[in-house]
C-alpha cells in the first residue's frame, strides 16, 4: 500500500478502481463464450470476474479505517486492486477485435472470424449431426451480395493441445448431387476462405463394411465422367486425391484415441459399438446405387475393385476446391462418410413399404446413425489429430 497516500485519497482511488473492475468484469462476462477454458485468456477472465475480486482482497496485516472503504468489507487493498485491473485489461487485449464482436453476439458476419475448416453437408441429418458437436455455434447473417443460402453456421471445436479452438463453418446444400456440391463448396470457399474443406455425410458401403462404419477418402473416383456407352473405363486423370495429411491423421485416430466415439455419448444403433475407421477410395457420381450388380455399376466395380463406398457429392466438391485453388490459392480437401446402406444384389427390388426398395428402407433408417458416426469422426479428427494448428493460434 502507498504509505504516502492519505486515507481519504486511498478511499477515492479505491472506489474508482472498484468501478473500473466492475466494468471490466461485465465486459469479460459478455465475451466469455470466446474463451477456451484452458486458455490463458480464460484464466485471466476468471481471475478478473470472481465475485471476491470486487469485495475482498488480501489483507496485508494492516487495518484500513477510511469510512469510504468500510462498506466494502473485508478491507480492500488498493494496490492489489490496481494490479488486478491491469490483469483484466490484459485479458481484454488477448481478445482479438473480431473475436470480441463475435463473442458478444449470437450472429457473425462472413470474414469476422478466421475459419479453419469448412464442413460441407447435403442432408438435414448430416447437418444436424455436425451442428450438435460444435461448441458456441453462431448463425451467419450473410451479406448484401450473398445471403445465407447454405444455412451457414460458425462454431468452434475445442482442441486440448492449443489455447484457442478451431473455427468451423458448417454448410448444407439445398439439393443433392455433384452440381449442387460444386455450388455450395465454391460459395463457402469464396465467402469464408477456410484452410480446408471437409465433406461429411453418409454413403453406401461395399465389401466387408458394416452399417455405421466410417470411410475416410484417400481418393475420389468420379465414375460419371469415365463411361463410354454402358461400359466404364477408368481415367485416373479425372480422379481427385484428397489431402494426404488428413487421411494419414485419420489412420491413427482410433489407435491413439480408442474412445474417440464413445466419449461423445452417441445414441442409437451405432452407439452400441465403436465404428471402424477405414481409409480408401470412394466412387462419386449422380446415381443412387441400390444394386451394385446392375450392368453399369458392375463395370465400375470391376474396373475399380479398391472402391469401398459410393456417394454423390465428393467429385463436385473436389472440382470446386480445385477451381478456387486456381483463382485464390489453396485449400486442403477431405471427405468422411458414414455407411448408411450396403448395396447388394436385389437391393433395388420393392419391399414392404409401398414404392420403396428394400435398400432405400435400410438407408432411411440408418441415415441419422451413419451421419452421427461421420460427424463424430470429423470433429474428433479436427479436435485430436488435425495436421494444422488453429488460425488464431498463429496470428
Describe the structure in your own words.
Residues 26-64, 92-98 and 349-355 have low confidence and may be disordered. Strand 8 and strand 9 form a beta hairpin. 38% of the residues lie in helices and 18% in strands. The strands form two sheets. The chain has a five-stranded mixed beta barrel with strand order 6-12-11-7-13, surrounded by five helices. It has a two-stranded antiparallel sheet with strand order 8-9. By secondary structure, it is of the alpha/beta class.
Number of domains: 2
The number of distinct helices, counting runs of at least 4 residues, comes to 11
Overall pLDDT confidence: 76
Rg (CA only):
27 Å
SSE run:
HHHHHEEHEEEHEEEEEHEHEHEH
Alpha-beta content class: alpha/beta
Offer a few descriptive terms.
Rossmann fold, alpha/beta, 2 domains, 395 residues
Topology:
Blueprint: H1 7-31, H2 40-49, H3 67-70, H4 78-94, H5 97-103, E1 107-108, E2 117-121, H6 124-131, E3 135-140, E4 153-157, E5 166-172, H7 178-192, E6 196-205, E7 214-222, E8 227-228, E9 231-232, E10 240-241, H8 244-256, E11 277-284, H9 295-303, E12 307-311, H10 314-328, E13 332-341, H11 358-385
Parallel strand pairs: 1-3, 2-5, 2-6, 6-13, 7-11, 11-12
Antiparallel strand pairs: 3-4, 4-5, 6-12, 7-10, 7-13, 8-9
Helix pairs in contact: 1-4, 2-4, 6-11, 7-10, 8-11
